[in-house]
Amino acid sequence: MAKARTQFICQNCGTAHNRWVGKCEGCGEWNTVVEEDPMGGIGSGPGKVPKKGRPVALTALSGEIEEAPRIHTGIGELDRATGGGFVRGSAVLIGGDPGIGKSTLLMQAAAALSRRGHRIIYVSGEEAVAQVRLRAQRLHAAETDVLLAAETNVEDILATIGEGKRPDLVIIDSIQTLWSDTADAAPGTVTQVRTGVQAMIRFAKQTGAAMVLVGHVTKEGQIAGPRVVEHMVDAVLYFEGDRGHHYRILRTVKNRFGPTDEIGVFEMSDKGLREVSNPSELFLGERNSKSPGAAVFAGMEGTRPVLVEVQALVAPTSLGTPRRAVLGWDSARLSMILAVLEAHCGVRLGQHDVYLNVAGGYRISEPAADLAVASALVSSLAGLALPADCVYFGEVSLSGAIRPVAHTAQRLKEAEKLGFSQAVLPAGSADLPKGAGSRWSEIDSLPDLVARIAGSKRALKREDEDV
Ligand code: TYD
Ligand code: MG
Fold first, then answer.
1. Count of domains in the chain?
2. Considering every ligand atom, which ligand is closest to the CA of 138?
3. Which of 59-73, 259-273, 364-378 has the highest mean pLDDT?
4. What are the TM regions of this chain, as residue ranges (predicted)?
């Protein structure tokens, strides 16, 4: 008889090893490899008795398409991030740092759905019933018909939610606490988490209930164990935010039933999460427009324009190698902008420390922010404040050219709505609104931008001399 072989699985990335190793060969992490029984989980190879296959009906690509049946929470920002509400029979993973507000968000969603007459079951594996009740009271959710269970065993959970009328939505908080009798591994290991999640997904597909799974993110930015879980579920949302700030962003990274570039914005208050339907106002709230080094970027998040301030500080360095510190943007991208400024615009930054910060703890991923970053850098170096009513957007290429970006009209419309009357944008932008004319300055290279900002200095000097 073949010997039952144990495997050593990395808890960080899921790579299987034949023997124990200190450093995972997959992700390079130390001390993440744990011995597990491969017979318990998914991907554990063929069962003991090979089953004879049964042919399934093949079908054509064309045919009737049904709109995915959704349940709307009525919480606009949440519905936006999920692409219009939770889809029946689907599984959604909501990841985030511990303490960011996942349980709060889901308790509020559960209460909202329950008020709309849906049957909601909230399974808490982390907190006792009393704790969850306390939170529900604080969120004014206690008077709703949400059903609560404090349980971590997969079989018991399945028996509980399978009993009685089918639930419309089940919330499992969190997948790291799930454990099954069938998997021979410690709770929280990859095998246990995978087994538990697989069982929950199967329940959702079989019954048509929507399943929401909560997963904690580890320091490395992955849900513990569960990179493996991301591909099993239908949608993955991350709840992120900065502890120092009150606002939280629900970001879609995968969605089989909707767009993946949407965000929902919330603000944490003492009464739970509040929707923020106009994020620009929030991010521009504490703006001090008179100081040098600040430029407003007109960005896009999915279908929604978001205005946010980029702040730069360029100061002479006392170190051999100057410091480059970035918050909220890609540091490789900053190095690129600095190199282009040096090479094509004669802006010498080699003897300067450079600090870049995106206001409000917000994180920008768009290359369109290049122009705003460059403006903030030059403004700080020159000690000249940029016009307070001007927005910037455009991508910078290595040659120093400014490339057009998408959604010009939408960005400008949002800027106008918030009282910005000028914009610096790439020449040749496709959908530039007609008639607005002179207030939009189209530039086609980075030296143009530097000349514009330096030119404002000359204008200022002349004003001074005139006086
Ligand atoms: P929680 O939802 O428990 O986080 P997670 O489930 O992601 O671990 O949120 C915990 C934090 O939110 C905690 O630090 C307290 C804060 N909070 C508020 O500020 N207001 C509230 O109304 C609630 C319920 C929580
Ligand atoms: Mg929680």
1. 3
2. 1
3. 364-378
4. none
Q: Which residues pair with 210 in a beta bridge?
A: 169
How much is the pTM?
0.78
Q: How many Å apart are CA 355 and CA 343, to the nearest integer? A: 20
Ligand 1: which residues within 6 Å by Cβ? 96, 98-104, 135, 138-139, 268, 270-272
Ligand nearest to the CA of 173: 2
Residue 101 lies in a domain: yes
Are 331 and 250 within one domain? Answer: no
Dig out the tokens for 245 from the structure. Answer: 């700030």
Domain holding 208, by residue range, is 70-277
Fill in the DSSP letter of residue 438.
G
| Nearest-CA residue for atom 16 of ligand 1 | 101
3-state class of 95 per DSSP?
strand
Encode pLDDT of 218-258 as tens digits: 666 554 555 678 889 999 999 988 777 788 989 898 999 98
Which ligand 1 atom sits nearest the alpha carbon of residue 271?
A: 22
DSSP 196: H
**Which of 212, 268, 274 to mutate for ligand 1's pocket (most ligand atoms within 8 Å of CB)?**
268
DSSP 168: S
